[in-house]
Structures are given as structure tokens and as C-alpha cells.
């Protein structure tokens, strides 16, 4: 590590103290992090039993919601909030399973479309009860009605805080706010 001027070390120490989590914040973060990690793990396991990964479920759901069940791959990456490489991997597997059809874009040699096939729509329909059951069992069964409302409020607050930062990063990838292609 290189030597820093003493005023830089003092500045770094001051910054570190201002951004450190309080004991209360640390307990809340550790609990939230464990809960979301375990919920994701549970959801992955339940969807795997239904024959697909959570990532594949998200891609199929985005296509199901799209007009004509078709999106340009770039739009699909924006909708699913996937990197291009992650989407490419998912599209390859979904196409191999016959759940989506990949087609070249006639007006742009570099572009391609993904279309949900009837088999993919059926796979999505078949997996949705497993997804819903996993979420209900692992999340909502543990909460009171008031806690469900608070969870919605907390989620809105967090996404509201992060939307600007995340949207700016997504814009750098060619997506507009909310994951939509600009």
C-alpha cells in the first residue's frame, strides 16, 4: 500500500466513520441480507423442482408480458435487468429447451428478437404456482397483514432511493429508466 499524506488519512478516517453502519443498522442489514439470501435460495429450489431457474422464469415472464410475446434481446435485457452476457446465456438455454425462439432482426444485422413459444408459455404457467407457493410460504406466511403493508412501503422506499442510481447505470447500457429501452 502506498503512503498517503497525513491529511488524506485523516479524511479517509472521517469518511469511514460517517458511512459505518450503527449497531442497529448492522443488525437490520444482517437480518435483511440473510432473509433475502434465504428467500432467493428457497425460490430457486422450488422453481428448480418445477423445471426452471429463477432467471429463466424472469425472462419468460418478461416475454409473456410483451406485445406479441416478442422483444429485441436488448429490450429483454433491460426488462429482466440482466447484463448482456447473463441474458445471452439464458437465451441460449431457453432456446435449446424450445421455450423461446431467437430470430435475427431483418433491419439490423447485429440485432435479434426473442419470442416466447407456446411450450415456453406452458412452462411459465406450470412454474408459476411453484413460484407463488414459495413466496407465500417463505415470506407472506411469516408476516401479519400490517407487516405485508410495511414491507411494501419499505420496498417502495428502497427502490425509490436506488432507482436513480440503478437507472443511471442501466442508461449507460442503453436502457431508459425503469429498465425500459430508450
Your description of this structure?
The protein is mainly α and 182 residues long. The protein has a domain at 25-142: Winged helix-like DNA-binding domain superfamily/Winged helix DNA-binding domain (Arc Repressor Mutant, subunit A, Orthogonal Bundle), CATH 1.10.10. It is 68% helix and 10% strand. The chain has a three-stranded antiparallel β-sheet. A hairpin with a 2-residue loop joins strand 2 (100-105) and strand 3 (108-116). Helix 2 packs across helix 6, helix 3 (54-65) crosses helix 4 and helix 3 (54-65) crosses helix 6 (118-138). The radius of gyration is 21 Å and the shape is globular. The relative contact order is 0.11. Mean pLDDT is 87; it is low at 178-182.
* Oligomer description: single chain
Largest sheet: 3 strands, antiparallel
Distance between the termini: 43 Å
Low-confidence runs = 178-182
- The number of distinct β-strands equals 3
The residue-averaged pLDDT reads 87
CATH C-level class of the domain at 25-142 = Mainly Alpha
**3D shape:** globular
Strand order of the largest sheet: 1-3-2
The CATH homologous superfamily name of the domain at 25-142 equals Winged helix-like DNA-binding domain superfamily/Winged helix DNA-binding domain
**What structural class should be given to the helix and strand makeup?**
mainly alpha
Following the backbone from N to C, one meets helices and strands in this order, namely HHHEHHEEHH
Q: In what range is the share of β-strand residues?
A: 5-15%
CATH third-tier fold name of the domain at 25-142: Arc Repressor Mutant, subunit A
CATH architecture of the domain at 25-142: Orthogonal Bundle
Annotation field: number of helices: 7
Q: Evaluate the radius of gyration.
A: 21 Å
As a percent range, the share of helical residues equals 55-70%
Amino acid at each position: 500500500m502506498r503512503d498517503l499524506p497525513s491529511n488524506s488519512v485523516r479524511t479517509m478516517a472521517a469518511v469511514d466513520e460517517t458511512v459505518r453502519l450503527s449497531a442497529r443498522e448492522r443488525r437490520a442489514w444482517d437480518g435483511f441480507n440473510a432473509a433475502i439470501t434465504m428467500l432467493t435460495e428457497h425460490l430457486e429450489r422450488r422453481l428448480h423442482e418445477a423445471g426452471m431457474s429463477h432467471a429463466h422464469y424472469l425472462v419468460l415472464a418478461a416475454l409473456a408480458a410483451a406485445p406479441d410475446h416478442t422483444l429485441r434481446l436488448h429490450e429483454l435485457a433491460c426488462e429482466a435487468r440482466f447484463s448482456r452476457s447473463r441474458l445471452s446465456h439464458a437465451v441460449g438455454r431457453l432456446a435449446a429447451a424450445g421455450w423461446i425462439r431467437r430470430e435475427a432482426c431483418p433491419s439490423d444485422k447485429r440485432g435479434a428478437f426473442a419470442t416466447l413459444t407456446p411450450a415456453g408459455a406452458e412452462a411459465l404457467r406450470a412454474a408459476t404456482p411453484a413460484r407463488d407457493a414459495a413466496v407465500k410460504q417463505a415470506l407472506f406466511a411469516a408476516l401479519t397483514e400490517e407487516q405485508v403493508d410495511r414491507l411494501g412501503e419499505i420496498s417502495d422506499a428502497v427502490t425509490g432511493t436506488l432507482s436513480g442510481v440503478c437507472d443511471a447505470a442501466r442508461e449507460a447500457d442503453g436502457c431508459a429508466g425503469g429498465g425500459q429501452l430508450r
